[in-house]
Amino acid sequence: MNFRNFAIGLTASFGLAWLAVVVVPFFTMRDLAPVAFQEGIDAQTGIYHPKTAGRVVNGYEVYAENGCYLCHTQVARPTYAGNDLGRPDFAGLSADPDRGDTRRESNPFDYLGLDFAPIGVTRSGPDLMNYGRRLLRDHPADAESYLYRRLYNPRLDPAVAAWSNCPGLPFLFEKKEIKGQRSDRAVDAEVKAGYEIVPGPKAKALASYLMSLQHDDAVPASMNYAPATTNPEG
Ligand code: HEC
Questions:
Q1: Over the chain (234 residues), what is each successive 10-residue block's mean pLDDT?
Q2: What's this model's pTM, rounded to 2 decimal places?
Q3: Which of 60, 71, 139 for mutating ligand 1's site (highest number of atoms within 8 Å of CB)?
Q4: What domains can be seen in the chain, in order of their start residue?
Q5: For ligand 1, is residue 149 a contact (CB within 6 Å)?
Q6: How far apart are alpha carbons 133 and 137 in whole angstroms?
């Protein structure tokens, strides 16, 4: 093999992969065109406006710097690539009390405003794309305090205590002397008498980010296959 063929081969092997995986997605998704709902197919009309949950960027950074994406995905794959819509409440709730079946595939609008789409590396733990929905459904009265307890130490939840390898983040919490009344945010965990454990700013940011993970708003059927759409083409 001469150098010329070697150089061409090298460029083709790496260049084509780079084009397909980096360049093409970048140019197709950097400047997303608005998508319209279609009359007769979708339940609503007009342009799709993604629902955003205010300022969650701080919590997203805490999520990134603690490597949560190594075990948790945030993507309901298109159905040709895997049956994520069939997994229990990953892609939305199959029986939302107000809206019925809200499951849908992820789309590029779900990651608007973030530097990187936290689609995840492995799926050792459950997908978190709609964790906020599951949390509010399962812990309607005490979602926030349940979440602090779980972030402090997931194994405080008896349901998973025996086997969960989800890391606790005790370093995002502060041990504080109780002065007067206990803080209503205090984590219900064992600690020296007279002290309590309260979430620090990063734990609070991470909790509001996790609660904001509710990516199941209705999208135009043209963008998505979801069991609840009325798209005649399925
Ligand atoms: C070593 C892999 C691993 C890493 C890293 C990890 N998790 Fe987990 N996570 C799991 C597993 C396994 C479960 C399922 C058992 C459980 O509920 O604890 C889980 C469950 C969860 C749940 C509950 C999901 C549900 O649907 O009930 C949340 C919330 C969560 N993890 C948040 C985090 C956050 C935030 C981070 C980053 C600080 C993180 N995890 C990092 C493995 C991991």
A1: 94 96 90 87 86 77 96 93 90 91 91 88 96 94 94 94 95 93 85 91 95 92 70 46
A2: 0.89
A3: 71
A4: 32-151+209-223 (1.10.760)
A5: no
A6: 6
